[in-house]
Each structure stands twice: as structure tokens, then as C-alpha cells.
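Field notebook, page 292. I keep forgetting to write these up properly, so this time I am using the form the group agreed on. The chain and the ligand, pyridoxal-5'-phosphate, are recorded exactly as supplied. Prediction of the bound pose follows.
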Amino acid sequence: MSHTAGQDVWLKLESAQPTGSFKIRGIGLACAEKHHHGAQRFISSSGGNAGIAVAYAGRRLSVPVIVVVPETTTARAIALIREQGAEVIIHGASWHEANNYAQDIVTERDAFLHPFDDPLIWQGHATIIDEVMQSALRPGAIILSVGGGGLLCGVVEGLHRHRWEDVPVIAVETKGADSFAQSINANRRVELPAITSVATSLGARQICEQAFIWSQSHPIYSVVVSDRAAVKACLDFEADRQLVVEPACGASLALVYGGERMLQQFDNVLVIVCGGTTVGKDQLRKWWLELQ
Ligand SMILES: *Cc1c(COP(=O)(O)O)cnc(C)c1O
């Protein structure tokens, strides 16, 4: 990958987390805190990696978990959530309906886990930068993917924690899930009418407010790639590293594999390989053929 990019590329392999994505960092911390404060059940409305992370954290903390997912959730994701011992309720045509239902069933003794908009989530994700710091690498820039902006907020928080506020972040999205890019352009938080990208893990129709606030006080570049480039990067990464990641992660990898010109101005580019386990190899190949 360094060869392809023409400079040193570093990878933070969040795909190697027990739940297959970085989500367990923030969700794990949030679940531990909420458990400590008496929560007797965790409720999530994510049919993706956040739901898997809540299910995992619940199992490790011996707290029962309910994940409400929309009808569009893949069989693979449902199986991964159930594998962790969580109860899955399938409700509604989209995340919006599933989320409303999840909110309705939350009682006083439950904790609701938001996938990206919670300071505890950002605090947990910030540990990525603690580890980079300990590894003695000072990145010239950090590439990461943006959905609702939880990962972005965590990484920027981590950078500020270590006085690395001058390290720029390159925030990548796919076309059709580009709520961050559109918000930067419009200078306000834009709400997308719908998500039309295959990178469903980036499919937040609106970024969290904190992500927008950081965009005005931290050097953040916004880049949008095509679904095709994101899927291609997943296939290239699989061939290179024998690791399967979602297009949500492929979006970040696409800057390296696509030879993004912007990278030339930085040394030691660090890619947060955010991972994701809801998509298998066969689906990647199928998308690749469909997106020709
Ligand atoms: C959740 C997720 C993202 C996006 O993270 P946000 O915190 O919502 O910006 C990106 N990639 C993967 C694999 C994810 O699970």
C-alpha cells in the first residue's frame, strides 16, 4: 500500500477488534458506564456494527440486550447479533421506524445506546489515538470514514487530548451517504433525504452536531468517493491483506488504492481501518459486478 501511495502508509486495524469494527471502543465504554450506574438492560436500534458491539458488551457484562433492527437488515448481521446472545426484534421499513420502536420500549431501568451521538462514545473511540501515541508514530494525516461522525469526534478528541491539534483528518464518505461533505459545503448540518450508497454503515442522514463543530475548529478535509471505488478498495485490500471489510471502510482505503493526489502533501498517512462485519466476500463481488 505504501508503494501504491508513493509514501509510508500506516494502518490502524480496527477490523481486528473482537466485534470486527472500532465500534466496541465507544460502545464498550458507554455500556460499562451505564451498567455501573445501574442499567439492567441495553437497548440498541442498529442493525449494523453498533448493534453487534452492544450485543457483545452486554454478553461480557452479563446484561441482557435487545437490538431493534429494520426489515432491511441482512441475515448476516442478525445472525452476528444473535450469536452474541442478544434478542433481535425486527421492526419497520427503515432505521427510523426501528429506532422509534426501540425508544418506545426503553424503561427506566434500561439504557439506550446511540451509535454515534454520545460523549461517552467519543471518549471510547479516542483510545485509538492513545494507542497511536504510544506506538511512537506521529501521523502526518489521518484518514477515516464518516457516518454519523462518532469516529471522527473520537479521533479528533484523542488528537486534542495529546496536543496533536495540528494533525489533519481526511474525512471520507461515499456518494449517497455524504452528509458530512454536504454539511461542510452548506455550512450547516444538512439532512439527506435518503441514503443511496451501498456503504450502509455510513448511512446516517445527518451528522451529529459535535462533528460539525469540530469541522469548524480542527483541520478536516472532506472527500467523497464513489461506491465503486469503495468496493474496489475492499477487494484490493482483501487481495493484499486477506482481510474482508465493509465498503464503509473501503471508502477510506480507496484514497490509498485510488492514488488520491491530496495525500502527496503528507508524510506518514495513517488509515483507520474501521472494519465492519456485516458484508461478506460474495456480496462485495456481487456489488463489484453490478457497479461496472
Ligand atoms: C459505524 C461505522 C462507520 C461510521 O462511524 P460513525 O461513528 O457513524 O461516523 C464506519 N465504518 C464502519 C465499519 C462502521 O461500523
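OBSERVATIONS:
- The radius of gyration is 18 Å.
- The beta strands are 9-13, 41-44, 65-69, 87-90, 110-112, 141-145, 169-174, 220-225, 269-273.
FOLLOW-UP: compare against the apo run.
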